[in-house]
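Quick note —
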Amino acid sequence: MKISLRSVSILALTVVATILALPGTASAATTDGYDVSYPQCGTSLPRDHAFGVVGVNGGLSTRGNPCLASQLTWALGSSGVAGSQPRAQLYLNTANPGELLGQVTTWPKAGATPYGVCDGTNSQACSWQYGWERAQNSVTSFFVPAARTAAVDGRPSSYTWWLDVETMNTWQSGSSAALARNLATLEGMTTFLTSQGGRVGIYSTGQQWAQIVGSVPLGSTLVGRDSWLAGATSRSGAQAACRKAPLAPGGRVTLGQYVQSGLDHDLSCV
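Predicted structure written out below.
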């Protein structure tokens, strides 16, 4: 069965979240966190969270999460008992649709990049520029207005930003050159976020990462980035994920995700 990672049963989530929200039924304190995004709009979120990871996008990097402001407030209300994890963290959807240029209105036409000048073609340079622009748009168009609405810290430097890398989004495929273009997109996103002072990590499974990116060369800006590993269905599975190799060389596995009862739970590995 394909692991859909962010795709949850909205009905199951609503039932479970409502139970968690009933007066007098809050669960005992936990050191685990939860990650939420647009599928959880309109539902009652767990109250026993040690930290929260909130999706900035609405499923695609070009869309915003309409509940971002309220979910940011929820994350910052975490107990903080997992001392190694910030109370509020963020994640961004990622993709590289360069093989579908005729259908992509957001593909860049120009830009100076570490891979040369982007000329609007399906190249490493334009892939990098695409990543930069998508991260910039997510921060300035979606995150900053939501932070202002929620009256929370709107500085990108105050957060860890996870790059959500999944096969369900559009990626280039079929050759080592295609994987290199995918890598360039993630490097562009990373470079923008770090230019704003943000801390950047990678969310994926080993299998999906291998399919989308493959190996990460030592000169890449992804070297040293921490990993948040998905795919487990139990807490013990997430604990096992904590002992796996990171997605990028030089990094650490700092979070393990497991899905139970329609909720994305997150276990701190550090």
